[in-house]
Amino acid sequence: MRVRIIFSLKNKGADVPFHHQYLLAQIIKGLIVKGGDQSFLTCGSYNFSGLKGQTKVSRSGLHFYSSKVTLVVSTPDPNFISYLLKYLFEMPQIEVGNLILIPQEVEEEEEPIFEDFMKFVCISPLVLVEASFDEEESKQYISPETDFFSDKLYDLTMSRMEKSGCSPDQIASFFKFQLVPDKDYLLKIKQGKKKFARIYPVYDQDVKYEIRGYTFPFTLFAAAEVLEFIYTCGFGFYTEKGFGMLDTVMENQEKRTHPYEIVNIPN
């Protein structure tokens, strides 16, 4: 399931770093710790976006000028959502960078219909190589147009799906897998001298690493179960740290939402 958490912004014009996933990851981990349920501390089957709203870019980062700011969280476990929201809405406000955010409401997104190929766009950076002390390896650029790029994501996705409970026979049936980037988009980015692959910070065991993340639209040919998994749980490395969140490209179709009722859970 996927929900949109909507905050009111107390201090319009305040800023966060351009890439602030690590700040959001710290807040989410803090809420999990606050609840005291140790099982959620080791849960890696969730994913989240960056903050969304009306922004302007400066040297210090992203300045938010909208009255509302949205965070998208996705997981296959409804209990995790209930748990997270319960403790989030106990907070009168949270601070992300210099933003002061007040939790207001939650909307649940309706899931798309998963077929054997779908168009996606990255709404947080997609990480292909795991961080290591050899930063040259984790920061190396790999063209999304190569089979190597697609094959790396296939191997990682199958490994994650197996850990999530898929049987060896199911994994063997998911042999169809090919990522095809939007070539027109890549050409446009190149002609405009812009970047779709940047270096981002990530913290693991309180150690700061630098990794390369990619943001670009693509079509993925794979079994519907695989597409549903990466849509719900994220794509690539560090999904539980806010990397690899995807959204579908739905032509002539507006994504529908409905109000989500926060359920009180026992302390």
Describe this structure in words.
This protein has 267 residues and is of the alpha+beta class. The protein folds into 2 domains: 2-111 and 254-259, 2-Layer Sandwich (Alpha-Beta Plaits), CATH 3.30.70; 117-248, Alpha-Beta Plaits. The chain is 29% helix and 30% strand. The chain has helices at residues 21-35, 38-41, 78-88, 135-139, 147-163, 168-173, 183-191, 224-233; strands at 2-9, 15-16, 47-48, 55-58, 61-64, 68-74, 94-96, 99-109, 117-122, 126-127, 177-181, 197-204, 207-214, 218-222, 246-248, 257-259. The strands form 4 sheets. Strands 1, 3, 6, 7, 8 and 16 form a 6-stranded antiparallel β-sheet that branches. Strands 11-14-9-15 form a 4-stranded antiparallel β-sheet. Strands 2-5-4 form a 3-stranded antiparallel β-sheet, with no helix packed on it. Strand 7 (94-96) and strand 8 (99-109) form a beta hairpin. Helix 1 (21-35) crosses helix 3. The mean pLDDT is 91.
